[in-house]
Amino acid sequence: MRILKIGYMLEDNPTVRSSLPPDVQTAVTVGTFDGLHKGHLRILEELIDVARSQNLRSLVATFEPHPRQVLQPGNKLKILTTKEKKVSLLAELGLDYVVMLSFDRAFSRVSPERFVKDYLLRRYHMRSLVIGYDHTFGENRSGGEKTLSELSAVYEFSLIKVPPVIIEGQPVSSSRIRTALDNGDMLLAANLLGRYYSFIGKVVPGSGRGKKLGHPTANLQPLSKHKQLFPEGIYAAVVDLDGSLRRGVLHHGPRPTFDEPEPTLELNLFDFSGELYGRLLEVSILQRIRPILRFESAEELVRQMERDDQMVKEVFERIKIPVDTFSRVG
Hints:
Number of helices: 10
Strand content: 25-35%
CATH superfamily of the largest domain: HUPs
Shape: elongated
Number of strands: 14
Oligomer: single chain
Strand order of the largest sheet: 1-4-3-2-5-6
Helix content: 25-40%
CATH topology of the largest domain: Rossmann fold
């Protein structure tokens, strides 16, 4: 996969020349693709098939930042996938090009026809456009299937619409995944995504209390402040350390037993005693096993932590999931 202009390019930067070579013609899809869930994967699979059948190159045009973060700043939307993770996941799919368009208010006012003419046709040499069942674009989201159908007749490109992926009676969507995360339903989120939900955190120094209690933890600082997390609680989690899966218990929240109200993310890995300070860990979350509770003593907390370990191990025994569904496109 070729990522234009080293990772992503800013289309509003006049020093950037983003047009493809003149001999490259493309099949294109356009969208935010936050989460890269099963519905998105269906679209991308169709894009690759169309490109191969028509002897074209496949190209994904996506946006940074998320359009809703620009147009609805008061909403304080949290994203499901950082731009780095999105590019990493797209790279696994066999796409030819990924373009990340810089989204701001000026860009949001581009009309549907101008976007098709100036971007998809002139810059990316589009011959086929693949869209989802509910795709809209352009100023005030005024461009939909009807507009694109009319434009395809005028500018002579083919238009392919992909139906929704239905799970538990409803289309898969980023909003459904956000709701599942808000509810702590990590299994539903994983089912909609096609992989377990994950976040990346840097291991930073902590109080060392976990080690004193016989349950040493890696204290994690999320790498992205815009990444959506999940409710406070105790979770079954897994980390890929140098190609080896390490299972453990993740604490997310305050430590009320010690009158510490500030929420923390602390990961206790089973059967691991190495040094992790300064490392970046991608933590995949399997299941929430209980809420944060206050205990009358440290000894009572330790007994509960031992029960937590056992419950988490039972989760791993019960969920027989292939390794490649933890953090990769599945």
